[in-house]
Amino acid sequence: MSIAINSDEVLTPPVPSATVMVLRDGPAGLQVLLVRRHGNSGVLGGVHVFPGGKLDAADRLVEPATLDRPLSASLAALGEPGLAADIALGLHVAALRETFEECGLLLGQAQGAGLVARVREQTAAGTAFPTVLQGLGLRMPTACLVPWSRWVTPRVPSVSNKRFDTRFFVAVAPDDQVVEHCAHEATEAVWQSPRVALERYWAGEIDLAPPQIMSLSQLSALADVSQALAAARSRPPALIEPEPFDEDGRRVICYPGDPRHSIVAPAWPGPTRLVHRNQRFEPEGGLAALLG
After folding, report:
1. Domain total of the chain
2. What's the CA gap between 18 and 160, in Å, rounded?
3. Contact 93, 130 (CB under 8 A)
């Protein structure tokens, strides 16, 4: 499958959303969870992505008394001056909710399969995710999410006809829970080392969108979960506002630090642009550039 290139300008504001790079330590080092979206999905059908989705109104209405830390901590973690506190909270809740809905994982909870089954039963009956946790006497575990980056889709998106303002988090997978992907939204959920995921993408075995390509490139330099969490906590979340342009009939997406980008300072080590060739996005320098 190839990712079609969009050239239409999108005039609506980007939709607030959240995604989670769920991590665990595998036999050979760091692994991240990827889900393959259904081919008929309206956004990135057939592409392997991190679990996530848009902010729902109910995500913003969680009572502060039910949180595992003060509301101000979630706001401070995102490092976005001017962001409303209820939006900051909602983004954390959306990340937790979407990971449960798409993968069956209750991040930040350690009560195993029995708890997962109870939450699934009640949410399937229509009860809101925060209400279910509260009814079970559980705190909303916002502290288990560590902000990693913020991606804002440009006015001319390259791989969709929609715009998103997505906060990327990292979180540790619970040891006593098993991934079960949502059959309505995905066709598989797989644990992969970031390096293997990029190698599979390069070999044409899986499709990845640019944010996943660049995020996996950053994760590939880290040995284990502790390094990933330390890296996330060592700096403010990187703001990534891609700036696309067409050159020689090809779409190019450049990122901070690229000669064509309006921001001079790079957001990360490694490639600062992706070029659409061979029916996918590739960095100059190929796979080796992504793997450092």
Report:
1. 1
2. 17
3. yes
